[in-house]
Write a structure and sequence with these properties.
The complex is a heterodimer of chains A (113) and B (114).
Chain A lengths: L2 E3 L4 E5 L4 E3 L2 E3 L6 E7 L6 E7 L6 E3 L2 E6 L4 E6 L8 E8 L6 E2 L3 E6 L1
Parallel strand pairs in A: 2-12
Antiparallel strand pairs in A: 1-4, 3-9, 5-6, 5-10, 7-8, 8-9, 10-11, 10-12
Chain B lengths: L3 E4 L2 E4 L4 E8 L5 E7 L6 E7 L2 E5 L6 E7 L2 E7 L7 E8 L9 E2 L3 E5 L1
Parallel strand pairs in B: 2-11
Antiparallel strand pairs in B: 1-3, 3-8, 4-5, 4-9, 5-6, 7-8, 9-10, 9-11
The chains are: A mainly beta (113), B mainly beta (114).
Chain lengths: 113, 114
């Protein structure tokens, strides 16, 4: 079965704190892609990153970083020095070669000034 | 216009009304999607179109009827909806159909069924 679990429903931090959003996935496929999307209050999901199953290198983009570990089936997302504008719902997602991307339930992040 | 646009942004309708949601993508993509987002089920895929052909229908009730006249436009025709259909309806596009591709989303239509 294909599944994405985001166990953290809501996280609240104070500005400038670092925060990690967890994502655990399940698939029997050896080829797959993982994604993170951000959904701000305006509604549209914004694509953040795509990673394929053969590339376990961690990635950093500004204050964002991603830790992909196949051994634990996790693809965690860290925001360094969080800002109020980071407040949003963040979705982790899995694609295994069909047409239906599997999304997690999302983690709502509140960053307080 | 850039990206993916959706109209209307908000819609209130009675159960006997007929209305349509419109989506337009300005990205030159070949695939378009409809999603339903509600508090009970965060993101549910409804339909996928690839080059104007429907390639996925995720067990959606017939009161939702999609239409894709060309690769830039996608409609969702609504009729005799139920209150539980109240949700945010999101349109998305991707360069190619298939879940290996990142999707670009519109801002959604907030639908309320009375």
């Amino acid at each position: 079965a294909q599944k994405v679990t985001q166990a953290q429903t809501e996280i609240s931090v104070v500005e400038k704190e670092d925060v990690t959003l967890d994502c655990v996935y399940e698939t029997r496929d050896t080829t797959y892609y993982l994604f993170w999307y951000k959904q701000p209050p305006s509604g549209e999901l914004v694509f953040l990153i795509r990673r394929n199953s053969f590339d376990e290198q961690n990635e950093i983009s500004g204050r964002y970083s991603w830790n992909f570990q196949k051994s634990t089936s996790s693809f965690n997302f860290t925001i360094t020095a969080s800002q109020v504008v980071d407040s949003a719902v963040y979705f982790c997602a899995l694609g295994t070669g069909g047409f239906k991307t599997i999304f997690g339930a999302g983690t709502r992040l509140f960053v307080k000034a | 216009e850039t990206g993916v646009t959706q109209t209307p942004r908000h819609l209130v309708m009675g159960m006997t009304n007929k209305k349509s949601l419109k989506c337009e993508q300005h990205l030159g993509h070949n695939a378009m999607y409809w999603y339903k987002q509600s508090a009970k089920k965060p993101l549910e895929l409804m339909f996928v179109y690839s080059l104007e052909e429907r390639v996925e229908n995720n067990s959606v009730p017939s009161r939702f009827s999609p239409e894709c006249p060309n690769s830039s436009h996608l409609f969702l025709h609504l009729h005799t909806l139920q209150p539980e259909d109240s949700a945010l309806y999101l349109c998305a596009s991707s360069l190619l159909a298939g879940d290996y591709n990142e999707q670009f989303f519109g801002p959604g239509t907030r639908l309320t069924v009375l």
